[in-house]
Design goal:
- This protein has 93 residues and is mainly alpha-helical.
- The chain has four helices and no strands.
- The protein has one domain.
- The model has no long low-confidence stretch (mean pLDDT 92).
């Protein structure tokens, strides 16, 4: 669960420091939170976000794709009913 853990840490920074809510944890994740995380992962996997509008190098984009797609797979293994809205990235095939 290393990818999901890294991603939740990243998401939790804003949640803890700005929203003043507890950090996301794998053990404490609810289905509603898992759905929010999946939506966030889908947004992060969009070409514009993945490349920072073309500002990131190809290797950094690949690194991000591996992190986000790995987190998506791990999240789905914990919550099989939580799926991305589309399968355009072919992550589950």
């Amino acid at each position: 669960m290393k990818h999901l853990e890294q991603y939740l840490e990243r998401m939790s920074f804003w949640r803890v420091n700005v929203e003043k809510k507890p950090a996301y944890t794998i053990a404490g994740l609810t289905r509603a939170e898992a759905e929010r995380v999946m939506e966030s992962l889908e947004a992060d996997l969009s070409p514009e976000n993945l490349s920072c509008d073309g500002e990131l190098s190809r290797s950094e984009q690949t690194k991000r794709f591996k992190l986000y797609s790995g987190a998506m797979k791990e999240l789905n293994s914990l919550f099989p009913m939580v799926l991305p809205s589309s399968d355009e990235y072919e992550i589950f095939s």
